[in-house]
Amino acid sequence: MAKHVLNKLTVNLYDTDIQKQLYEHLKLLLNYQEGLSLRPIVALCIGSDRYTGDALGPLVGTYLEEQTICNVYGTLEQPVHAGNFVETLNQITYQFHHPIILAVDACLGKSHEVGNIEIWQGGLAAGIAVGNRLPTIGDISVIGVVNAQSQIGYMDLQSTSLSKVMKLSRVIGEAINNVLQEITAEIIPAYTQSMAK
Q1: In 10 A of CB 153, how many CB atoms?
Q2: Which residues of the chain register pLDDT less than 50?
Q3: CATH, residue 164
Q4: Which candidate, 98, 60, 99, places its Cα nearest to that of 79?
Q5: Across-strand partners of 72?
Q6: How many domains, in total, are found in the chain?
Q7: Which of 34, 114, 121, 142 is the most exposed place for a label (fewest CB within 10 A)?
Q8: Which domain holds residue 171?
Q9: What is d(CA 48, CA 59) in angstroms, rounded to the nearest whole number?
């Protein structure tokens, strides 16, 4: 799933302090990014609403599009999936100079991992569970384990509980939104002051 994983945090949907943990870790990872105040942040939310389990990314993307001023790719209305993944990456590269890409995707895991959210510094390789080999992408990656994996990945995504996916997407979306709002509030005054000098 991941390549060059650093500073990984794993929490479960039912942990009492999950929002605090996600918020603090995500903020830490964003602060590790060189040139944070100068680089655009792009949320790349991967998946499709064709399978319940695969809708995690688009649900997060839709939430972020409604709540933040972040650049969002991958919503329920305009999903980013295997069919348009490379084209979307090219579009991001063309539109933004050296962006910080926050990649969000659903994941299949072991039965005891269902409901876990993992965040790390580094990219993720989307589509592996259903046999797709897509380019590894992301400066920071966030995944939600939506179901247990068997021999047929797409069947596991299809039979995933919508309730669990909705809960995971809301928790992830809120954590990202809270961090981006705080970072934006910190960056804009600093940027304005530097321009005034």
Answers
A1: 20
A2: 1-3, 153, 189-197
A3: 3.40.50.1450
A4: 60
A5: 43
A6: 1
A7: 34
A8: 2-196
A9: 9
